[in-house]
UniProtKB/TrEMBL annotation:
UniProt entry tagged with the keyword Disulfide bond: yes
Domain C-type lectin span(s) in chain numbering: 37-145
Keyword Protein biosynthesis among record annotations: no
The protein's name: C-type lectin domain-containing protein
Amino acid sequence: MEMVSNRTNQHNWIPVVEQFWSRLLSGKGNMCNTRWRGTKNYVFINQAMSWSSAQQYCRKNYKDLAMIENQEENTEAQNAKLSNKVWIGLYRDPWTWSDGSRSSFRNWDPFGSDNNGGSQHCATESSEHVWGDENCSVKRVFICHQGEHL
């Protein structure tokens, strides 16, 4: 488990470490990689699910699918993932975060938001730090987050 913190947030490590051991001992040890950023904790889940199943999993075990509200968070979420393409918490209705909030930050691949076939309503993040839309029923690994909005 890898954590990133600055010196002012070192006291925040204790709950993260306690939660890691609690989840590991309870059999919920799906955390392959975790990044601590002070206000948000990004957790890579190495279990492929549809977007809605991933959302339910994150809401039950963490807070929600990853919400990425600026470039710094985009980098932190990218650093937490151990796979090429992962679900993030963005869906088309219009593009809204999983919790229903809107964000002006976008990081689309030039062809990433094309809704090819009219059925790509959920967002992924690639290894190039860019987002794409995809059919929500495709099973992918994903990133959850804990912590508060900035």
